[in-house]
Structure formats: structure tokens, C-alpha cells
Specification:
The protein starts with a helix and ends with a helix. It contains 13 helices and no strands. It is globular and about 55 Å long. It is mainly alpha-helical. It has one domain.
Length: 282
């Protein structure tokens, strides 16, 4: 190794080395397969534990199940944020805004040819948002049915289908329960931004090319689908959504906002439905 390469990796005298510094070949320092799977497991196991172990062991009836399932999911997502910060602090030596923007691609989309920021590329949010909605309404449900037909697996636990929240047993108890709306908003913030997106599109995706090459975005989508052990019957549809609609644009344009904003659409829809429950109009 020549002295110039060493200097590039170490940076100016007195500055801690950063994992964002390009290594040989222009790539940032990449993760090994073991590290990728280790981070994936650290995010996945708490979600499965909350859904399949804690909730059925503690909850008594549909109302308790809905509330406890929401709490355990929120806790698992908050843990992902903490995990992402721990990794960021270890790699960058800082969890300040500048480190986050650089490491997690929290930036304006970049031109894939010259790497320059291009605000006009934000127009991509329109087709990505439309694609996300169409996938959520039509494609993902069809993939889910096909998955259940070809690979029969676990079904939702009793009372844990989404429809239960609006059932005769639960809906009346949600009237005026504004605390539950606050709980849902907390879960959503960590779901579409600070938790899942921080970890999968921010921490993992920029460091997967060393193992998966140009298919790193596809592998990221597969890992994200398999991460949903708390709802494995949706894994196939989520892989499609995550890979094509979210991971690929983020990788190509190096901007996590291209996944965060489309991912937020489902929160807006569910929020409107919950607002009706709180008011007793649903």
C-alpha cells in the first residue's frame, strides 16, 4: 500500500478515521456478510419476540392484544434507532447532524453520473409515491396470497389482524383514547424514519456492495422483507416494495429521503383512520 492511500483513509492529523472515507476503488469501507447478518438479526429478533412471545403471553382479549402489540412494535423500532446511533457513533466518532447526513445519505438526491446534488431529482418522489400506493393496494396483497398458497406459513395470531382495531370489541374503547393516537405516531416516526429506514437504508445499504455487488439494493430488499418475522405472511410483498420502490432509488441517487417519504404514505392513511376511531365516527 502506498502512503497516499493511507493518508486518504486516516484523514488529517488528529482526526479520527471515518468509515465513510473511500477505500481503494472509491468505495466506502464495506461490511462483511457476517456483519450485515448480525445487524439484521439485532433488528429482527426483538420484533419477533414482541409479537410471538410477549404479546400472546401477556395480553388478555382483543383490546389488550392491539395495545400490547403496538407497544412491543414501537419498542422494537426504538431499539433499531438506538442500534443505528451506536453503529454511527462507533464508525464516525459522532452522532451529530453532519455525520448522519454523510453516513446515512440524508441529503438531496445525487446525480448518478457525477455525484452532484440535483434538487430537481426530487420530482422522483411523485412516481415513487404513486408506485408505493398501488403496490400497497393491489400488488402486495396479490403477492401475499400467492406466498401463502405456495409457502403456507404462520397466520396472524388471534386478534392481531389489522381489522381487529376497527372491530366491535375494540373500536368503542378507542373513542377518546388520544393516548393511543400518540402511541401510533411514536411508532410511525420510528417505523418510517428513525428506525427501519435509519437502519436498513441508512446503515446497511451503503455498506452492502462489497458483498452483493450491483445487486446490493436487491439484497437489501430481501433482508428487509425477511426482517418482518412479526408478520411473515407479508414478506414477499415487502421485499418487492422495499427492493424496487425504496432501496433501488436510494442506492442510485444516494438519498434516503427517496424511501422515507414514500414509506410515510401508509402512516398518513392509517392516521386518518385512527382519527375517525378517536372521534367515534368510524
Amino acid at each position: 500500500m502506498g502512503g497516499g492511500t493511507t493518508q486518504n483513509r486516516l484523514g488529517p492529523p488528529g482526526q479520527r478515521p471515518s468509515s465513510s472515507t473511500p477505500a481503494s476503488g472509491g468505495l466506502p469501507v464495506q461490511y462483511s456478510l457476517a456483519k450485515i447478518l448480525g445487524i439484521w438479526a439485532a433488528a429482527t429478533l426483538p420484533m419477533g419476540l414482541g409479537y410471538w412471545v410477549i404479546t400472546p403471553a401477556v395480553a388478555d382479549g382483543p383490546y389488550d392484544t392491539v395495545v400490547l402489540a403496538t407497544v412491543t412494535l414501537a419498542a422494537g423500532l426504538i431499539w433499531q434507532f438506538v442500534l443505528a446511533l451506536l453503529i454511527l457513533r462507533r464508525e464516525e466518532g459522532s452522532i451529530r447532524r453532519a455525520a448522519m447526513v454523510r453516513r446515512l445519505w440524508l441529503q438531496v438526491p445525487r446525480d448518478p453520473v457525477n455525484g452532484r446534488p440535483r434538487k430537481r431529482l426530487l420530482w422522483l418522489l411523485a412516481p415513487l409515491g404513486i408506485a408505493f400506493v398501488l403496490n400497497m393496494m393491489y400488488v402486495a396483497p396479490a403477492v401475499e396470497k400467492l406466498q401463502q398458497y405456495l409457502l403456507p406459513g404462520p397466520a396472524p395470531l388471534p386478534f392481531q389482524k389489522a381489522e381487529t382495531l376497527f372491530s366491535a370489541e375494540v373500536a368503542p374503547q378507542m373513542k377518546g383514547a388520544w393516548w393511543f393516537l400518540a402511541l401510533f405516531l411514536t411508532l410511525s416516526i420510528f417505523n418510517v424514519f428513525l428506525g427501519e429506514e435509519f437502519l436498513f437504508r441508512g446503515i446497511l445499504l451503503p455498506r452492502m456492495q462489497g458483498v452483493f455487488g450491483s445487486a446490493d439494493w436487491f439484497a437489501n430488499g430481501v433482508l428487509f422483507g425477511l426482517y418482518h418475522v412479526h408478520q411473515p405472511w407479508t414478506a414477499g410483498g415487502i421485499m418487492l416494495t422495499s427492493g424496487v420502490i425504496m432501496s433501488l432509488p436510494v442506492k442510485r441517487y444516494r438519498s434516503m429521503w427517496l424511501s422515507v417519504i414514500p414509506h410515510s404514505i401508509q402512516t398518513v392513511i392509517v392516521f386518518g383512520m385512527l382519527l375517525g376511531l378517536m372521534r367515534g365516527t368510524t
